[in-house]
Amino acid sequence: MNFQWYPGHMTKAIRMMQENIKLIDIIIELTDARIPAAGRNPDIDELGKNKYRLIILNKADLADPLVTKKWKEYYESQGFFVMEMNSKTGNEAGKVKDMVQNACAEKIERDKKRGIVGRPIRAMVAGIPNVGKSTFINKLAGRASAKTGNKPGVTKGKQWISLGKNMQLLDTPGILWPKFEDQTIGLHIALIGSLNDENIDTTELSCELIKILAENYPNAIIEKYNIDRDKLSELEQEQYATPASAVLSAIAINRKCFKQGAVPDMDRAAALLLDDFRNGRLGRISLERPENY
Ligand SMILES: Nc1nc2c(ncn2[C@@H]2O[C@H](COP(=O)(O)OP(=O)(O)O)[C@@H](O)[C@H]2O)c(=O)[nH]1
Ligand SMILES: [Mg+2]
Question: What pLDDT is recorded for position 153?
């Protein structure tokens, strides 16, 4: 499969970040806990090389907790401050503020020696579209101050949100467009639903998901859709069937998605499977493991 992103957006977003980055002490970078590697744009390391760094493994409620723990250790070993988070509940918002103060301790100490006391730490949130930046900012601010939704918000004037007396947050997050350095990255971003499905063959996409799950979560689909293993073997014998398409047929049968003539409707089954996966209804699943990076 082939995945692309319109490159025009990228230069504009990077320019915006280069301007804003001068104003801040720390970058709070959000990445999706299900795809912590593909969900980061590596340009941020160059952009933020003189800044304190905090990585938020967001949507941790949808990811495999054991794998998320390994990712936390992985990024910590690279010198980042790391936290896992569910921005929808925002329960960890207080902890984020504490961690920002910790991450910037050196600077706070340096300020103190110069007689500067009580100057708030300035932070910017950054991440790829749909990772949860607006939701995160709202929860940190404790009110609906940033636009949420599936499209990146409209930029207005530069505004700071005060988070107590110790911290200020730029209300416009830095949008990092994903970098499709290899097709696995594009695939993973498409699977979590952060690429527009309109231009993607979702049936093919769902077969890729089936292959990944078969390897790492072999029971997730079988259990969710009550699939009988003998029936599955039967479907695999059909003409043109592949192991993945047979699973998709079985899902169609289980969910009673049929076209005329009682033919399993693969497209509807694919849409259903992707939707169930993206909303955590197949369980907490991680698509990437630090061992492979
Ligand atoms: N399950 C879950 N969903 C989240 C989380 N954070 C954000 N979302 C959802 O992800 C979608 C995109 O969020 P948004 O804040 O608009 O992303 P942005 O494009 O980075 O600003 C929305 O539907 C949010 O409700 C999270 O931690 N867990
Ligand atoms: Mg947004």
Answer: 43
